Amino acid sequence: MTDARPLGTDEATFIAAARSGDTARFALITEPHRRELQVHCYRMLANYEDAQDMTQETFLRAWHKRESFKGHAALRTWLYRIATNVCLDFLEKRHDRTPVPAELADSELGYLQPFPDRMLPEDPQESVVARETIELAFIVAVQRLPPRQRAVFVLRDVLGWPAPKAADALELTVASVTSALQRARATMREQLPGPRLDWRSPATHELSKDERGVVKSYIDAHERNDLDGLISLLRDDLRFAMLPDPGTVTRTAGDAVDGWISGGLFQHGHDDWRGIPTTVNRMPAAALYLRAPGTPDYRLFAIAALRVVDGKIAELTGFDVTGKPWLDLPPAL
């Protein structure tokens, strides 16, 4: 595997650390790659906690394989190769992570977790954290792909690796990589709506004024116990899911609201809210806290990730985080 490049400072320093067996130097050199490798593992696995674990496993494997690194490729490339294969090994062992059939609703993807923006690389390469390739809809669509096809797609179309480089990393032929990429692209186009098929185009990062305003209004409606105000924020064709609960996907605002009402939203026991605006997956989000009757604190209850279109909520994906410390958010207010 080669990037056709001279030996760089990182590579030379890594080789010296590998030969000396110096774990501290090894950690110092590899640690700056942790966050982008974690994003890579997240795209492969759709689960933030698993991505953390597999990133750590990547560093362990890199340490054990350190003497095999000769500097013919960039250190970053070598680490991505290891991370990709760590994820493939994980997927091979986990029977609950088989590709999600297209006909199943996203609620069947019970292991999906949001990715906290605070854990994105601080000085990222554009391809690593392009908003179009980390939003929840994109991550879910990737899970429709078989694992090796998934790896080809992420390496080629997200990271922009040339076919020979991806083939070498996966120990495939260039022809196999090309074929797998064509099939993956076809599946992705079937899963994503038209405006979101531009995952290889220049990316956006910042929230729009509309997005910031909608998440504020969403939190305000909860804190005022205002169902009508909440309804006014929704598009008629709202797509709603509450994870990890199966069978919660609805595809109209009316159905979503009916479910919320039948579940007791804004009724006794679910009528004393506080919220914090945040972002996950480069999307506007609200961390919602609920105070149960007779208790002094508002406890972290759910994280709601919103996709806003023309000033209205088009998709609302809720994540039940009751009793779980999550995203470095305070557990109580």
Automatic annotation (TrEMBL):
Start and end residues of each RNA polymerase sigma-70 region domain: 31-94
Family annotation (CDD domains): Sigma70_r4
Pfam families noted in UniProt: Sigma70_r2, Sigma70_r4_2
Annotated SUPFAM superfamilies: NTF2-like, Sigma2 domain of RNA polymerase sigma factors, Sigma3 and sigma4 domains of RNA polymerase sigma factors
Protein family according to the UniProt entry: Belongs to the sigma-70 factor family. ECF subfamily.
Known partners and oligomeric status: Interacts transiently with the RNA polymerase catalytic core formed by RpoA, RpoB, RpoC and RpoZ (2 alpha, 1 beta, 1 beta' and 1 omega subunit) to form the RNA polymerase holoenzyme that can initiate transcription.
Name of this chain's protein: RNA polymerase sigma-70 factor (ECF subfamily)
